[in-house]
Amino acid sequence: MRTDFGILDQMPPVALEEMDAIRLMNRVDTKYLTDLETLDKVLEKAREKAYLVFETAGGRIHQYRSLYYDTRNLQMYLDHHNRRLVRQKLRTRSYVSSGVVFLELKNKDNHGRTKKKRIEIPAENYWMMSLNDESVLNWLESRLRYPAASLSPSLETVFSRITLVNPDMTERSTIDFGLRFNNVRRGTSADMGPLVIIEVKQDGNRPSILRDILLDCRVKPVRISKYCIGSALTDSDVKSGRFKRKLILINKMKEQI
User: Fold this and answer.
1) Residues 105, 93 contacting (CB under 8 angstroms)
2) Are 79 and 112 in contact (CB under 8 A)?
3) Rounded to 5 degrees, what are φ and ψ at 175?
4) Cβ contacts of residue 29 below 8 Å, gap of 6+?
């Protein structure tokens, strides 16, 4: 699996403080599924359009680990599978290079908008989400639709990420590759091979050059959830009919490479 992209060294850097200053008031998120060979072409065209790349501690590719929590019967997964508009996902996320860990709650509303809230927790509590910490419990109880005690680790995702920012600072895009899934409850694993998930997060009032680049490279948008796809790939018993077409697409793309 690739661990570097030389083209990134030819792109100007953007720091975390500058990224945090980007306010997307009318944000639209669009995901795309492609492969590493096509990603090379996308990055070259992005460089030509003066895109910046997120850099911290001298690194431009960052490692992430996310541990998703769910109820005993996987209700959060099923809410997504069954097209429930209002739903939640809860995870701990480790930024491997810095060792920082956050507890993150994602809320999706009936307008398709996703809002994320998070708090930092001790790194050693990545696997237990600090349920023995009263402040964390209070934070969860005021936001979570499920009793915190009813949740336990379900699926871990491991991947590398590149983050691009457009020159006007009105768009952020994440590029995730080297995706691996570890089903904590089943003890099974799966991976996405050379496939790449790109998510463009833009101000809905402005055009997106990166979306045009992806279209030019024949990369089409696709709705995909790492948690749901990872769960379906690692658990043969879980309800997955709605994701069948995506699973077929993933296997087909992997076979063609």
Assistant:
1) no
2) no
3) -125, 110
4) 114, 199, 200, 201
Q: 230: Cβ–Cβ under 8 A, 6 or more apart, which residues?
A: 155, 157, 179, 181, 183, 190
pLDDT tens digits, one per residue of 157-210: 999 999 999 998 888 999 999 999 999 999 999 999 999 999 998 876 678 899
Residue-wise pLDDT tens digits, 90-126: 999 999 988 999 999 998 888 777 788 999 999 999 9
Residue 55's SS3 state is: coil
Other beta carbons within 10 angstroms of residue 76's beta carbon come to 25
Q: Which two tokens stand for residue 147?
A: 């009793």
pTM of the model: 0.92
Rg of the chain taking only CA atoms, in angstroms: 18
Could you tell me the maximum CA-CA distance found in the chain, to the nearest angstrom?
51
- Please, which residues have CB within 8 angstroms of residue 233's CB and are 6 or more apart in sequence? 181, 190, 247, 250
